[in-house]
Amino acid sequence: MVIQKTDGGAFWLKEPKILFGANVDLIITGYKNGSSVGNATYTVNDRNGTAKLVTLTSKELTPSIFQNVDSVTVTCSNYNGTPDYDGRRHLCGNAQGVYQQCLFDR
């Protein structure tokens, strides 16, 4: 998944809500002018397939990385213990992303 503003400007990724129902590592990478400024990994530990809504905070998303970006990607790794989906820029399996009120202009 790629998150960008329609005008291509910088933004602050603040407390996105992620709805996921799997056992997977989400790799969230911030970019500025096409270069990576850093990433964060969030592990969803749900082996029973029940979707759960998680709000990522500054604990998971380091402000120095995500406060001035023009693009963010969300990829996955280790989906249900297999590398089959590693690095894909979509939400794996039965995942959905919920990004309401989480992008702030810089």
Task: Give a structural overview.
With 106 residues, the protein is mainly beta. It has one domain. Helix content is 4%, strand content 42%. 20% of the residues are buried.
Helix-strand string: EEEEEEHEEE
From the N-terminal CA to the C-terminal CA, the straight-line distance is 22 Å
- The number of distinct helices, counting runs of at least 4 residues, comes to 1
**Level of helix content?**
under 10%
Short overview:
The protein is mainly β and 106 residues long. It has 1 helix and 9 strands, in the order ββββββαβββ. It has one domain.
List the helices and strands and how they pair.
Elements: E1 2-3, E2 11-13, E3 17-20, E4 24-32, E5 35-44, E6 52-55, H1 63-66, E7 71-77, E8 96-98, E9 103-105
Antiparallel strand pairs: 1-7, 2-9, 3-6, 3-8, 4-5, 4-7
